[in-house]
Amino acid sequence: MELFTYFRSSAAYRVRIALNLKKIDHTLTDVNLLEGAHKSDAYLDLNPQGLVPALKLDDGRIINQSSAMLEYLETVFTNKPLLPTDPFDAATIRNWCNIIACDIHPVDNLRVLKYLTGTLSVSEDEKLIWYHHWIKLGFDALEPQLKATPYCFGDEVTLADLYLIPQVYNALRFDQDMSAFPKISNIYKNCNQLDAFKRASPDAT
């Protein structure tokens, strides 16, 4: 498999963790968002939205959107399950994933922040206020629900951890105050002791 990725993309980060956890042979191809590589004709042929990541399967087929990639990997590569077999438990984990993927990440990602400071002429300070607002709303909802024993749902890593850790990484990069989120902070620390998470980190790629 070939993952078209950008090191700071939280969506790509999720998929990198999954590929590592499931020990799937893959290559990483950098798509530099800051240099506009995602807008090239060659990349738009892979992903018409011009977003990362894009996952090219061994047979050449392409999957776009990280959630679709993770569901595909979970279905096909069953050696390291990231969802429990109980339907309600699996739905609970997907709910946590969606808080991040639908309610935090889309309004705080790079293209939205650039639109704020570029087209709308929002100041850097105002951009940070925006960013912190949406992070806090999402983390306020997640914090009381997560088990943190030691991972989101208990003693096994699940898809929820794959969504949470990249979001916390970016929150810290934007100086989010995490003092109100001890469980989230502990999950972040615990996951980052695992090799699959370390190798997927933007600091390692």
General description of the model:
A hairpin with a 5-residue loop joins strand 3 and strand 4. By secondary structure, this protein is of the alpha+beta class. The two termini are 17 Å apart.
Total beta strands: 4
Rg, Å, rounded: 17 Å
Strand content: 5-15%
The CATH topology annotation of the largest domain reads as Glutathione S-transferase Yfyf (Class Pi), Chain A, domain 2
Could you say what the CATH architecture of the largest domain is?
A: Up-down Bundle
Task: Count helical runs.
Answer: 9
Helix content: 40-55%
* Mean of all residue-level pLDDT scores: 96
Summarize the structure in short.
The protein has 205 residues and is α+β, with helices and mostly antiparallel strands.
Walk me through the topology.
Blueprint: E1 2-5, H1 10-21, E2 27-30, H2 41-46, E3 54-56, E4 62-64, H3 66-76, H4 87-108, H5 110-117, H6 124-142, H7 159-173, H8 182-191, H9 195-200
Parallel strand pairs: 1-2
Antiparallel strand pairs: 1-3, 3-4
Helix pairs in contact: 1-3, 1-7, 4-6, 4-7, 7-8
